[in-house]
Every structure is written in structure tokens, then in C-alpha cells.
Amino acid sequence: MLHKIGLEEHFAIPETLGCSEKYFPKEVWPKFSKHILDLMEIRINQMDENGMEMMILSLNSPAIQAIYDRKEAVEVAKKANDIMAEAIAKNPKRFRGFAALPMQDPDAAIMELHRSVKELGCVGVLVNGYSQIDSQDEYKYLDDPIYRPFWAEVEKLDVPFYMHPREPMPCNSKMLAGHPWLDGAAWSFGVETATHTLRLMCSGIFDEFPNLKYILGHLGETLPFCIWRTANRIRKENRGIPAKRALPEYMEQNMWLTTSGQFRTAALWNTIMEFGADRILFATDFPFEEVKDACVWFDNCSISENDRVKIGRDNIIKLFNLT
Amino acid sequence: MLHKIGLEEHFAIPETLGCSEKYFPKEVWPKFSKHILDLMEIRINQMDENGMEMMILSLNSPAIQAIYDRKEAVEVAKKANDIMAEAIAKNPKRFRGFAALPMQDPDAAIMELHRSVKELGCVGVLVNGYSQIDSQDEYKYLDDPIYRPFWAEVEKLDVPFYMHPREPMPCNSKMLAGHPWLDGAAWSFGVETATHTLRLMCSGIFDEFPNLKYILGHLGETLPFCIWRTANRIRKENRGIPAKRALPEYMEQNMWLTTSGQFRTAALWNTIMEFGADRILFATDFPFEEVKDACVWFDNCSISENDRVKIGRDNIIKLFNLT
Amino acid sequence: MLHKIGLEEHFAIPETLGCSEKYFPKEVWPKFSKHILDLMEIRINQMDENGMEMMILSLNSPAIQAIYDRKEAVEVAKKANDIMAEAIAKNPKRFRGFAALPMQDPDAAIMELHRSVKELGCVGVLVNGYSQIDSQDEYKYLDDPIYRPFWAEVEKLDVPFYMHPREPMPCNSKMLAGHPWLDGAAWSFGVETATHTLRLMCSGIFDEFPNLKYILGHLGETLPFCIWRTANRIRKENRGIPAKRALPEYMEQNMWLTTSGQFRTAALWNTIMEFGADRILFATDFPFEEVKDACVWFDNCSISENDRVKIGRDNIIKLFNLT
Amino acid sequence: MLHKIGLEEHFAIPETLGCSEKYFPKEVWPKFSKHILDLMEIRINQMDENGMEMMILSLNSPAIQAIYDRKEAVEVAKKANDIMAEAIAKNPKRFRGFAALPMQDPDAAIMELHRSVKELGCVGVLVNGYSQIDSQDEYKYLDDPIYRPFWAEVEKLDVPFYMHPREPMPCNSKMLAGHPWLDGAAWSFGVETATHTLRLMCSGIFDEFPNLKYILGHLGETLPFCIWRTANRIRKENRGIPAKRALPEYMEQNMWLTTSGQFRTAALWNTIMEFGADRILFATDFPFEEVKDACVWFDNCSISENDRVKIGRDNIIKLFNLT
Ligand SMILES: [Zn+2]
Ligand SMILES: [Zn+2]
Ligand SMILES: [Zn+2]
Ligand SMILES: [Zn+2]
Questions:
Q1: Does the CB of D265 have a partner CB in chain A at under 8 Å?
Q2: Contact call for residues B97 and B122 (beta carbons, < 8 A)
Q3: Is A293 an active-site residue?
Q4: ipTM rounded to 2 decimals
Q5: Which domain holds residue D81?
């Protein structure tokens, strides 16, 4: 279809480029790094060739979340947001953006959130999972009490929050010892991000801020497949969980799921069967995935044309109030 | 439907009963412990009431896998297998069994495997994930080279291997800190067991032993939903993975997936869409799940009557050569 | 779910009661005739017991469409609409109505359409297929040129049109000779109504009146399953078909499909896969089907809770502008 | 996939070629007529290019069924079967065949059935619906009592019977008056063939001959979508139907459904959800459909690789005992 809008479309700035290097074979890296840095011709050409009207841009991963020095995190986030805003200003019909935020410093994160939305025109915020704080080895998940004011502000500003994957802390990924091919997008991204999302749901965040709009990539990081079982077990042994409602209700009412990197029709159908097509949004995960691969699959997968238009465009316009 | 056969139907012996206590609210524990110890009336009554002809029994989890003392592990495994064999002998039309094995001692495991299959008539083997060895803190996954002779023997005996969940090592579950409601079947079982299975596939086990028959519970522990993405990423950056084929091929050709604890039609359809109904087997996860809940769901879920008979019975008879 | 709204909920008046008698075994008729005549307690009790907030009422079939005398048709239609309006006035929160129209006389049909919508408050119009005109043996389908002004008026008033089944003319049902069990809802209703709908699409009605809102019962009378094939054949040999677009586009953009009498999850999924959940509306086909059968199925079928609310209520409120 | 076997793959002989002319625009006819007459290079080239190992051939439609002169019907059937047998003998690894039968003369039909299977090596029989007998206007459906000995013989020989579409008798297709674009494969084929199949099921044929193997093309001619409703209505008002069982049971146990001309994934899923993948067989409907269209769709549609191999090949080998 034409006029698709993509929701997980990354760029990098020189300060964050290195984060992505490990995910690419050496021979591919020069081409990749050129693609991810580009916010002009290369990207727009690919969009034109594949029927994408707009990308809602976001910084690569983990980027800011891995800069444990608070001050540096704040500065790099600002710089990234400024560069992104500039690119959007040059092509306002083709780009919008998610703010990157220095979650190491919750107050600064709130300030940068404000600045990004109110001054730079960001339409949402994307955070790459937990953030390291003050040292390489300290980290906090977003269900930590220090983030309650942040969530309050996200709800108040009424902008969608995108929970993007990053790799687990080394201390949390020993299960994969000896199997580096399972690092990152192949496997550990999904475990980390689904777990983080479960922590948030269980912590009662969505009871406290019932209007949060929360986006997950990769068709929900396996949660559409297994959330029934998780909820079924918790119903039987709740062990004092703070969440007031059954977990699937938060997914039904607060979450949207994108197709980034999950170009698979069976998984898409599982997701539609659990949450309905209104909750699904198109995304490519460029440049970690090819725009073309995402688009050829999406344009031809066995869903109704009505749902294709909704997932590929209309749901996104509605969720982000794009005009 | 009548004459269903169940594939993940646990019992305990006094030595392993304690393993399951933590999963139950105190007020439920007396009833539960009575159910899991019973290998006679209670169980058969429940089967009769719900159209189950046969249970293929297995010990609870982690049981043997958590007995780090090798000698004790060998003894308790033998005792459990003997008790199970006795129960089967009393009701040979209603019970068959999976052997429990002391994987702490690979040679002893092979010997007990032989004894269980050849002398006791076990139709398969069920292992609860990794095993602790010699101390609480040492453990090995089954892709470890010390287990190659074991896999060779399983293939040679041509009996199905059931990879049953257990909780991650404490050092592997810090991601859930502060969220005990996500322990066990609610979440960490699935992560642990899917990861273990991926380790096995990636290690080349199924290239070396191409006739292994490998069973996963819980509709594949999320792998039907996400294996395409894992394979897609590995195809792009293989990082020297030993596996010779794409991971989904092992699932198509070496694996069977049971419905234990995943009484959810959308997930069942995802699994059928990825691997076909021939690869799906009925199971309840009794007594952690109610026989009735499993059966009412399965008897009424929206699949063809032809597939219901296959999943509920015929596939199992064929896979296990039951007569 | 609570607060369901039903879209194909029939009543009869003494003048039309006889039309339905043939569909019922003698022993059931007294109870049935009581149910279909009732527009008060019996009906509301059934709704209350099954979570239905509202029925959008319609006369039984073929009723007016089989009264070949124009004048009589006009009178009976008026009487039926008046009786219905009275019932709605007594329970405005529980009932709305589709107008019955004397299509034998296109001008009178337009006048009654106006009166029903503007004076009686009808929210749509329901016609039982072709109408016999002037004699038992003359009949016209609604793609006949004499009905173009009628369609223009329906579009202008912006009220949904429900194409309800009736049996084929005797001269059109000889294929079933000797097989009376295939008459009516069992088989010939569907063939007749799907064919009539295809005639309308092929005739270019939806090109001329692109804002028509057209409703089909019984999940689209098999069209979701086979419209691709019909369109594929017409694309290859169009033989001068007047329709300007591919037939599925009319279904995507002009049609809504109800669950009346088709309480089957696989067919519902086929319909969602072809047209999306926004196009599907709840209906029971009471009293030809039991309210309870329709509701128990719908409340439990394997769709997302989000879609259940849309299909069961929200889509209908939106389509009919109910307030 | 490679090595696909096709089940509805037509040829013509000069005597039957004219039957197909009306379905093609004039400019396409020369190419089409060359294709349908060819039983050598053209066909095998197309198979090679699209991964088809074998075609099970059948005569075009209506062919023999429309030759109302009994003697001529017998002769043309014999000739067609002989020509087909010769082509098979030249390429036994690429072709097998369905016998064409002169159903106008039930005794002769049985004799030709015997000769075809026993002497010519036909693996099944394909009949194009009802047959005209003795005059243009007389016709009999296959539930007529005169065909009981024929069905007995089919069951005894244990060869599958393929019910192929033909157009309704003119007296049975007045519903389409003025809409020639709905004739044939676009619409009336399906109505006719589904109705004929319902007649057979209702008549009790499958009770009398419970081992009949009955094949329907076009994914079951809409029956997978609507048979639940038909059965539901008959359960409520059976009106003395001879069939002893619910109609879906005959479909589950006696029928197989092919993909001919229905290259649509949503309809395929509906069919799998109702009858399971074991009951589905690959077919193209060549040369009315392109081999390439059928194969590109089938090779890429969203089903499991395991089911693809079954539907595309293994189910067919099993059903026809191909070696
Ligand atoms: Zn990404
Ligand atoms: Zn278990
Ligand atoms: Zn009705
Ligand atoms: Zn054909």
C-alpha cells in the first residue's frame, strides 16, 4: 500500500553510532553506518521506493540509556533530539520523531520530555529499556518508584511511550553463555523487553496512570502468545501483586504493538486474535531490517485491505494525532 | 472428546513433594499435595469425568534436577521410576510413564534411561531443564558436551524426550527482582525453557542426532510466535553458530508441542499455522492446572474435529507407538 | 459481554405471521408464534438474561415482499412500521427499528422510507430480497432500473440497508427438488441472497451511489469465502460487466456483515481476515435462532475483547449513529 | 515447494474442446485451446517451471456429462480415457488420470469405470456434475436411485470420486438472468456443485457407502464456510431427511477439498479450521487458471511447511495410493 507510516525507524548520531556496530558483520558495517546516520536522501529514497510516506524517527539502542554519566546522558539526548528536530524541519511531511530521554536523571528526563514535545514538536517518546545510572553496573527498570513522576508527566502530556529493546545487563544474560548468536534481536532483546513490560504492568503503573499509551515493537515481544498463561497463573497465585486488573486488560486498553522486525503472518494473526487490528501499527526497524523486506511482507500479507490501511497508516495517525 | 491422552501429568513422591509447595497458596496446598501424590482413585476419577483415557505420567519439577548430590539424585530417580512403574502396572490401560533421570551423572542417566525403558516400560523421558551438579551453584544445560552420549542414547532407543520447565538459577533470574508473581509458570519457566531449547538447537544437537524426538510443553514456550524472528536475525548475523540448518527446520522435524497450561485458542492457532496439527499433543499440566479446565477448553476450542482427535489422541499414539 | 445490540431481530404482525409457519415443526409453532409476535416482556426478558441491551427490530420474511398486490403491500408495510414504532416508543432504550417497505411500488417505497425514517424514527431499512409484483409469478430484483431512484433516496437519507434472505422463486429452486430440508435458512436463503447481492454489485449500484451502507446477515452469505474467486474470474473474462471496480472493493467499503444464524468461529475468522472486524456486527436472527445460542457463542468465541466490544456494540452505534 | 502434485488439471480432446470455448475472450482462445489439447511439452514445461512433479489429468467440463445421446457419450468417454492413458504411458512419472464416465447410462458407466481403473490404470474418477440424458432437457443428479449401483462400485473399487463443477441447467440459472459475468467459475459453478454435494449428503449416500472418498474442488465450493449453519438448521427442522448423521461428519470423514481456482489464504484457513490439513489437496484448475498463479500462491501462502508438504503432495500420494 502507499502512504505507509513507520513507527520504529532508527537513526544515530556520531555519539551513539558505536552502540550498533556489534550487531553487524564487518563487511556490512560501512553501508549500515551510512544508512543509520542519514536523515535525508538515502532514507527518503527507500521510503519512496516502498510506499512509505512517513517515518517517526527514533535514536538507536541503547544510546542514551547506556550513558551512565547523568550529565553526559542529558547532553547527548538533547543533541540527538535537536538533530532529529532539524531533519524533521527540513522534511516535515516525511519525518516526525520520538524524543530520546536521559532516564538516568528523572527530573532532567521530564524537562527534556517537555522541551522535546512542546518546543521540538516530538510526537512521542522512545526509551531503550532500563538505564544504567552513575556506573556501568547500576541500573533501574522503569517500574522503580523514582519514575512515577515521569509516568505522570507522560500521561499528562498525552504522548505515546515506545518501549524499545536493549540487551539485558551482563548479569542478566548468563543464560546465554556460549551462545552469542542469541544476543540482541535474535532472542535476548525480546526476553528483556517483555520482562520489563511485565514489571510495569505488575507494578500497577497502568492503574495509577490509566491513560498511558504504551507501544511495544516486534508484535509485542511474545506477550500476545503467552499473556493468557501469565494471567492465568497470577489469578491462581497472586502473591500480593500490586496490579489491580488482569494483565491482558492493560494490553487491551493501554498498549499498541508494532510489526518491527516481526514480518510473520502467523504471529500477526495471533496478535489480531488477542488484541484486534486497532492495536497494531506498522514499523520496519530500519536499518536493522530492510525497509523493503518490511514493506513487501506487509503489503502482501493475508489480512483484509481494510486492516492493512489501518495498521499501515490510520491507526498511527489517530494514536499520534498526526495532521 | 473421549479417550484423550495427556502428556504432562505430574506426580510426586515424598522426596520431591516439597519442590511444588512454593507454587501454591497455603490454603490450597493440602488438597494439591494429596492430588499430586495420588496415582489411583483421585486421578482416575478426574480422568473419567473429563474424557481422558490415559495419562503419561512424569515426576514433578525440578525434583531430580535439583538434587545436586549425584548419588542421591540417582537413588531418588530410581525410586520415583519404580513407584511410577508400579502404578502403571496396576492400571496399564490408564497410565504410562516418562522416566526421571539423574542428569547430574551422565553415565548414570544413561543407565537409568535404559533400565526405565527396557525394564520398566517407560515410553519416554522427561527432564526438568538444567541440572545442578555437586553443589547448589553449579549447573549444566543439556547442550554441554558431556551430554552428547546421552543424546546419542536417546536417539538410539528412539524414545521421545520431554523438556519440562524449571525455574532459572537465582543468578539467572535477577531480572525479576521484586516481582515474585512472575516466577515459575507465570513467566520465568517459559523464558528458561525456551532459552534452553534454543541452546540445544543452536548447538547442533539435532544435526548430530537427526532422529531425536523432542517435546516442549506450553505450546512451545513462545517459540512458535518468535522463532521466525530469531532465525531471521541469525541468518543476517550468524556469528559462527554451530547449527547447520535454520532453527525452524528443527522445530518442524524434531519437535512436538503440547497444550499443557496454555489453554488458549489463539496461541494454538499460531502453533498450527507454524508447525501443523500433526506436531501438537494434548496435555493438562495436572495438578498445577485442573484436568477439567484443560479438557473443557480442548473439547470445545475452535479446531476441526479431525484435528481434535489427532491432537487429543492419535498423534500421541503414533509418536509413542502406544498399543 | 453486556450491552450487546442485535441487528437481525424479527417480529411479526398477524398479517405476516403465516410466512414463518412453514419453518417450524408443528410442536414448536405455538411457542414460536408467541415469541415473534411479542414486542414486550418475553423479548426483553431474553435480552436481559443474555446481555443484550438493544434489538434493532425488523419484520419477518418474506412478509411485505411476497404481497404482490401493490396496495395491500403498502398498507401492510405501514401497519407493521406503525406497530413497531409504537413498541419502540414504549421501550426506546431497548428497541430501534428497520422500516419494512413495499418495493412492489417503488414510489410508495420511497414515500414509506421517508415516513419511517423522518416520522417514525427508523434507523435503517430491511428488505427481504426480491419482491413479487402484481402477480405471484412476477418478481424483480433490486438491481432493476426501476429501483435506481430508491437507491438514490437511501443514499441521500444515509440510512443502512439490510438485505435479508427470502426463499428463491419456485422457478429458481428446482435444483433442490426432492430435498425440502435444504429450503430456507439451511441452504436456499444463502444462495438467493448472495446472488442478489452479487447482482447489485455487478450492476454498478455502488458506483452510482458510492455512499450506500449495505448490510448482509449470516456473515455475508458465503461471500467472504468466495468473493476472491468471483473477482478473479471476472478479472479474466469480464464480459462487459457494468461494475467499475473489483467486487471485493464494494464489500470492503460499502458492506457490513452480521453474525445472524452463523455462530461459527471459523467463518467469523474468515470474515475478519477478508474485511476486518470493523465491518462485522452482532445479530441473532431471533426467533428463528435462540437469543441464548447466539449470545453464549458470541460472548465466548475466540476473538479479542476489543473486537468483541466493537462487533457486539460499538460498530453498530457508529454505523447507525445511535445515541 | 518442489514435487507438487496437482489434482484438477484438465485436458480436452477435439470432441470436447468446444465446451470450454465460451469461457474465454476470443483473443485468448487460440493459446488456451493449444494448452488444453496438449498432453506433452507445453504442459510438462509449465510443471517443470513451477515445481509440479505430477498432474492427475481429467477431461474438461461438461464434456461427457452434456452428451445426452447415451451411445455417443459412451464412445467419447472411451476415446478420452484412451487418449489420456496413452499420454500417461508416455510420461508415467508426470501424469496419472481420472476416468471420464458416461453417466447417462449407469451400466455403461460402471463398465467404463472398471475398464479405466483395471485396464487403463486410472487412479480415480471425475464427473462434471449432473448428466443430461436422452435429450437436452432431461438430467439427473447423482443422488438419483439409478446411481446406487454406481456408488457401490466406486466404493468397492476404492478409488476417489471427484465432483467437478458444470453450469446449472438453463432452467436452474434464471436467478442470474442479465448477469452473464456470474456464469461459470465466477459464481454458478459453485452454487451448482455445492448444491449437488448437499443433495448427495442428504440422500444418505454416505451412510450406505461409508467408505466413499469424495473430492470437491475450489476449497469445497463454499461448504466449509457454511456447512455448520446448514447442519444447525437441519438439526432444528429435519423434515425427514434421509441422512443419518450430521452433514459435517460426512465432510470430515468422506471428503477431501482441493485448492483449484481458490488461491486465497483466508479461505484455506477456514477450510483447515473446519476439516484439518489432512483433508486438503493441491490443484490448479489448469488451463482455466495458470499453473504459475496456483503455484506462486501455494508455495508462499502462510501455512506451516509441514502442511505445505502434506497438501502439496503427501496427502495426495496417500489418498490415491500413488507409488
Ligand atoms: Zn528497533
Ligand atoms: Zn508441568
Ligand atoms: Zn432473519
Ligand atoms: Zn476445473
A1: yes
A2: yes
A3: no
A4: 0.97
A5: 4-320
